[in-house]
Specification:
Elements: E1 2-3, H1 12-23, E2 31-32, H2 40-47, E3 54-62, E4 68-74, H3 81-88, E5 91-93, H4 96-103, E6 125-129, E7 138-141, E8 147-151, H5 153-160, E9 164-165
Parallel strand pairs: 3-7, 4-6, 6-9
Antiparallel strand pairs: 1-2, 2-8, 3-4, 3-5, 7-8
Length: 170
């Protein structure tokens, strides 16, 4: 894995996340993996960390207004839509085109910050799952399947301003 020297050589999503981390004065620049990590397991394997330390981004479509709802949870957990619905209302599935249009990222690289929704779409609604707080260090996607960055769960909550809630299956 490599620290980034020149952002001009990297994809737009990665560069946006790099800039968002710099604006937040985050201590750790995003890293570029030599292999794509489109799944939590691939990311954990590439980084040599436990699956739960991967802060995966799960995107839903709110049925009432089609707003994007993004839940950041541990890679070893599944989001329970019934636990999430009281915070959002009824939800539906989000396909790859919807995710790209509403976050500015492709599936496998959806970052918890640095969004670039299409012109008519609002910023996604964010939630951080409390299960991430089992770990001192977690890793999130940095806008591309090859990009990751590390932080603590508390840093994630502070950077995103997202409420921390319990939304995973028991």
């Amino acid at each position: 894995m490599n620290d980034i020297q020149s952002s001009s050589e990297r994809p737009d999503g990665f560069v946006r996340v790099q800039a968002a981390l710099a604006r937040a004065r985050h201590a750790h620049a995003p890293q570029w993996l030599e292999v794509a990590a489109r799944t939590s397991q691939e990311a954990a394997d590439a980084l040599g960390v436990s699956l739960g330390q991967i802060a995966k981004s799960v995107v839903f479509k709110r049925k009432s207004d089609e707003a994007a709802v993004l839940v950041i949870t541990s890679g070893d957990k599944r989001v329970d839509e019934k636990k999430l619905a009281p915070h959002t209302g009824p939800l539906g599935r989000a396909d790859a085109d919807y995710v790209k249009a509403r976050t500015g990222f492709s599936i496998g690289g959806v970052s918890p910050l640095g969004f670039l929704p299409s012109a008519d779409a609002p910023q996604p609604l964010l939630f951080v799952d409390q299960e991430l707080f089992r770990f001192e260090v977690i890793w999130a996607a940095a806008g591309h399947p090859n990009g990751v960055f590390k932080m603590s769960p508390a840093e994630l909550a502070a950077m995103t301003g997202a409420p921390v809630i319990d939304v995973v299956q028991a």
